[in-house]
Amino acid sequence: KQEVTQIPAALSVPEGENLVLNCSFTDSAIYNLQWFRQDPGKGLTSLLLIQSSQREQTSGRLNASLDKSSGRSTLYIAASQPGDSATYLCAAPGYSSASKIIFGSGTRLSIRP
Amino acid sequence: NAGVTQTPKFQVLKTGQSMTLQCAQDMNHNSMYWYRQDPGMGLRLIYYSASEGTTDKGEVPNGYNVSRLNKREFSLRLESAAPSQTSVYFCASSYETGSYGYTFGSGTRLTVV
After folding, report:
1. What whole-number distance in Å separates Cα of residue B8 and Cα of residue B31?
2. Which residues of chain A have pLDDT under 50?
3. How far apart are CA B105 and CA B84, in angstroms?
């Protein structure tokens, strides 16, 4: 059974800092891993999708890496801004239950001006 | 570029009432999903439809039914609402299960009193 864990649950940093959010998963036989952003009271916005054959994906100030062997993914945010404040979730399916994508509980990020 | 559209956005039901949550996508995706999101529980899969004409149970299907009306539409029905079904419901779609990323709707906030 796939389990996805995100640590820390909450993070507060001053504006301008570079930061890393962590995601770990137990079933390494994944098709892909996806990072989402969720603003309070809103839906989920897809940030990055890393296929199992890839090691990282970049979009603007965001860079996500995937290490299947260790069961870990990281989301790197460069030069953080107050607008980056949101909850970040990672999600991974498994080959054995690919249709049942499993979400981590999220990291609530707050960027202090 | 509507993506995934959910209706209604908000709903208050009395215990025992029934209602249907509607979801439609215009991305020609084959797979569709219903999730619920609760504080401290994260996102949990209720039902999914891997392709038109098929539906399967997810992690928390009790108290719900679904209908894949056509390729675009996937509805979630509460036959007899209970306070435990108070939650935020999200519909999502993907080109196929497993190897493709998910697109989410903006959610339906349901309160059962």
Report:
1. 21
2. none
3. 22
pLDDT the model gives residue B2? 75
| Buried b or exposed e, range A61-90, using 16+ CB within 10 angstroms | ebbbbbebeebbbbbebeebeeebbbbbbb
Residue A30: what pLDDT? 83
| Distance from chain centroid for Cα A87 | 10
Q: Smallest CA–CA separation between A2 and chain B, in Å?
A: 12
Among B7, B5, B33, B22, CA closest to A91: B33
* Cis previous bond, B61, omega within 30: no
| Dihedral sign from CA coordinates of A32, A2, B92, A109 | negative
The pLDDT of B49-65, averaged and rounded, is: 93
Q: What pLDDT does B101 receive? A: 83
Q: In the prediction, which pLDDT does B97 show?
A: 67
pLDDT at A97: 55
| DSSP H or E segment with residue A51 | strand A44-51
Q: Do A99 and B97 touch (CB under 8 A)?
A: yes
Query: Cα-flanking dihedrals φ and ψ of residue B30, to 5°?
Result: -85, -35
Which chain B residues touch A42 with a CB distance below 8 Å? 106-107
